[in-house]
Amino acid sequence: MKSALDTARLSSRRHELGLTQAEAAALIGVTQPAYQRYEAGTRVPSVQVVKEMAQAFQTSASYLTGESDQKKPDYILIGKAESPLLYSVVECCRNYNEEQLKRLMAYLNDLAK
Q1: Residue 71 belongs to some domain of the structure
Q2: Is 78 in a helix, a strand, or coil?
Q3: Same domain flag for 52 and 15
Q4: CB 51, CB 77: distance < 8 Å
Q5: What is the pLDDT, as a whole number, of residue 76?
Q6: Which of helix, strand or coil describes residue 9?
Q7: What are the pLDDT digits (tens) for 23-80?
Q8: How many CB atoms lie within 10 A of CB 7?
Q9: In whole angstroms, what is the distance from residue 52 CA to residue 47 CA?
Q10: What DSSP state is assigned to residue 19?
Q11: Residue 48 belongs to what domain range?
């Protein structure tokens, strides 16, 4: 992943979420002046900061860097405290092979009907 941001996408996504620059900075753990420089394009964030932005803005890092038009996050964090049952399901399936995962997905799709 390249670390250069698409500053228009960064600003647009922040506005879509109704966040101020100060709120965005707090969410990603940087100072407001640092965030302002990222959005203005005068400072290039590290890959780690881009990942933090993507998580905070509920999108993919690839979207924020202009590598993809896919806004959906490319990973999901599941906290044990926030969702213990879902966490347990994922933990149980972590070591499944490809065939087991396909069978599980087929079952889940049937269950959702």
Answers
A1: no
A2: coil
A3: yes
A4: no
A5: 82
A6: helix
A7: 999 999 999 999 999 999 999 999 999 999 999 999 999 999 999 999 998 778 888 9
A8: 15
A9: 9
A10: -
A11: 7-64
